[in-house]
Design brief:
By secondary structure, the chain is of the alpha/beta class. It has two domains: 1-6 and 23-102 and 184-269, P-loop containing nucleotide triphosphate hydrolases (Rossmann fold); 114-182, no CATH class. It has eight helices and twelve strands. The strands form three sheets. Strands 6-9-10-3-11-12 form a six-stranded mixed sheet, with helices on both faces. The chain starts with 26 loop residues before the first strand and ends in a 6-residue tail after the last helix.
């Protein structure tokens, strides 16, 4: 099983040091490729994800980021290559299987129901019930209680009974992230979580990402926003034309270098 030390910058936010989590990878991708006929969306990509780290995944539109993430999330099966977890091959046919292995995804559109409360959205499709079918009823008290506990863990001001339609962008992200805490998530994939929200709300979301990291959860942050990645990520992976062109600690890179890698001005780093 792959082992690697990943240095973490001190961020002044109470984050844990790298050594407090296992140095054994939670997921390994080996020579992963995905072809759609003649279109080679992802080509020969390999990397490992370590517990309690934030990995920024960057690249231009069409670079292969979304396809790569969909393979990790169980939407697509690789054409070539293998995924390994706990030193065993990981083969998934549906997203629900990824969830069973501790892989959760927060989509860019968040997939929330505006007319429901925060707690109802957290438990959407996974509602708690009391009694025995067919005489069981929804356990609203239990869902409100557990949702409140999760929001407290995330240090979010979101309240279980608040309607989603009245929430800010940062609060909506908190609801979507809270859903990932219902299961024993090991990896959370976040697709452009800070797109189209205010500066204050961006700070809220980055703080939520740190909370996940501090609980030993690996976060893959797919983003076009360079400041966000360099603020919260420990490592940056850059994709261009379906290939990985960089995988390094953010402390050893710079926004200028990443921009050059994305545009092709720099071939590899």
């Amino acid at each position: 099983m792959h082992r690697r030390a990943v240095a973490r910058r001190p961020d002044g936010d109470g984050g844990r040091e790298r050594g407090e989590w296992s140095d054994v990878s939670v997921l390994e991708l080996s020579n992963i490729s995905k072809h759609f006929g003649a279109i080679h969306a992802v080509n020969d990509v390999s990397f490992s994800l370590m517990p309690g780290e934030v990995v920024g995944l960057m690249g231009d539109n069409g670079a292969g980021k979304s396809t790569l993430v969909k393979m990790i999330a169980g939407n697509f099966r690789p054409t070539h290559g293998t995924l390994r977890m706990n030193d065993k091959p990981l083969v998934m046919h549906r997203p629900v299987e990824a969830r069973e292995h501790g892989i959760e995804i927060v989509h860019q559109d968040l997939a929330l129901c505006d007319n429901l409360t925060a707690a109802a959205n957290v438990y959407l499709g996974r509602e708690l019930r009391r009694g025995v079918w067919p005489f069981s009823i929804l356990d609203y008290a239990g869902m409100y209680r557990r949702s409140a506990e999760i929001f407290a863990e995330l240090k979010s001001e979101t309240r279980p009974r608040d309607l989603v339609r009245k929430m800010s962008g940062g609060q909506r992200q908190a609801v979507a992230i809270a859903r990932t805490r219902l299961s024993d998530a090991k990896i959370v994939l976040m697709d452009e979580p800070t797109a189209a929200i205010s500066v204050r709300q961006v700070a809220e979301v980055l703080s939520l990402i740190r909370r996940l990291r501090d609980q030993g959860i690996t976060v893959v942050l797919i983003s076009h926003r360079m400041p966000d990645v360099f603020t919260v990520a420990d490592r940056v992976i850059v994709m261009r034309r379906g290939r990985k062109v960089a995988d390094k600690p953010v402390a050893d890179s710079s926004p200028e270098e990443v921009t050059g890698l994305i545009t092709g001005a720099i071939e590899h780093a």
